[in-house]
Amino acid sequence: MKSESLVFAATGTLVGFLGGWIIGSQHTIARVPAAGMPASVPAPATSAGNAPSAPALDTAKVQAATGRASAEPRNPAPRIELGNLYFDAEQYQEAARWYQEALSIDPSNADVSTDLGVSFYYLNEPDRALAQFDKSLAINPKHSKTLLNLGIVRAFGKQDLQGAAKAWQEVIAVAPPGSPEGQAARRALDAMRGAHPDVPGSGASPSSGPGSD
Q1: What is the extent of the structural domain holding 101?
Q2: Distance between CA 25 and CA 202 in Å, rounded?
Q3: Which residues are registered as beta bridge partners of 23?
Q4: Please, what's the largest Cα pairwise distance for the chain?
Q5: What is the pLDDT along the chain (213 residues), one digit of tens a residue?
Q6: 65-98 as b/e, with b when 16 or more CB fall inside 10 Å?
Q7: Residue at 100 is within a domain
Q8: What is the Cα–Cα distance from 60 to 193, expressed in whole angstroms?
Q9: 22 C-beta neighbours (distance < 10 Å), count
Q10: Between the N and C ends of the chain, which has fewer C-beta atoms within 10 Å?
Q11: Domain count, the chain
Q12: 202 part of a folded domain
């Protein structure tokens, strides 16, 4: 996707609000694309605009978890651990592989499903990421991290501002009071409303406070 097609290219404030908020469900926070970058390119964003190097892979933990996965073919736990280790090292292809293996054993884990979707996004596959988020929401329709990431991928991966606004409104409706997800969704909606006031649903209703599951 060409950089000139990025709707938010000149809206650095939204990226600032969302920096660090395309997130895994269980572990390290990942990043959204930097302002001015193609929406489908998973470039890390920092306050200085410089991309940090990927964290080093903990090979000792990988070796130990791989051994457990081989010894316990029906246990999703070591596969989830491997997915998280590779995800945190920004090796998303390997992360996706292990999350898929874990889901083949336990397809009801919404956290793992969402982390798989985030991995797909960072592999430049936003459509696949969105399809995976749909699976996560079929497991748990109120999974706030899935809804938050759904909005981010719709905004940055698909330039679908209306779809992003809808997802973030849902985060506000289901996230516990004061949760990081709810706060991030409110900031995202406020930033979108300021930059694109014509987008339906971009303004959070003052009466729609966050609620718990």
Answers
A1: 3-195
A2: 25
A3: 29
A4: 56
A5: 222 222 333 234 454 445 444 555 664 333 443 332 333 333 332 233 444 677 899 999 999 999 999 999 999 999 999 999 999 999 999 999 999 999 999 999 999 999 999 999 999 999 999 999 999 999 999 999 999 999 999 999 999 999 999 999 999 999 998 899 999 999 999 988 887 887 776 654 433 333 333
A6: bbeebeeeeeebebbbbbbbbbbbbbbbebbbbb
A7: yes
A8: 47
A9: 25
A10: C
A11: 1
A12: no
- As given in the structure block, the two tokens for residue 3 are 């950089």
Continuous segment of H or E residues that includes residue 161:
helix 161-174
Q: Give the type of residue at 55.
A: P
Tokens representing residue 43 in the block: 């470039």
Runs of H (alpha helix) within 26-160 = 59-71, 76-88, 92-105, 110-122, 126-139, 144-152, 158
208 in a structural domain:
no
The Cβ of residue 34 has, within 10 Å, a number of other Cβ atoms equal to 17
Tell me whether residue 120 is in a domain. yes
95, 132 Cβ separation under 8 angstroms? no
Q: What is the CATH number of the domain that holds 71?
A: 1.25.40.10
133 and 22 in contact (C-beta within 8 Å)?
no
Assigned token pair, 207:
């009466």
